[in-house]
Amino acid sequence: GELAALGLGYDELAQTNPGLVLLSVTPYGQTGPRDGWQHTEATDWATSGYQYFAGDPQREPLMLPGAQAEFHTAQAAALAALAALHQRDRSGRGQSIDISIQEASLTTHAWNAVSWTHTGHVLRRLGSDVFRCADGWVFWMRRGLETNLFALIERPDLFDDPRLEEMEIWRDINSELWDIVRAWCAEQPMLEVYRRAQELRIAVTPVNTVADLLASEQLAERDWFVTPPGTADDDRHPG
Question: 44: which residues sit within 8 A by CB, 6+ positions away?
Answer without folding.
Answer: 27, 69, 70, 101, 102, 105
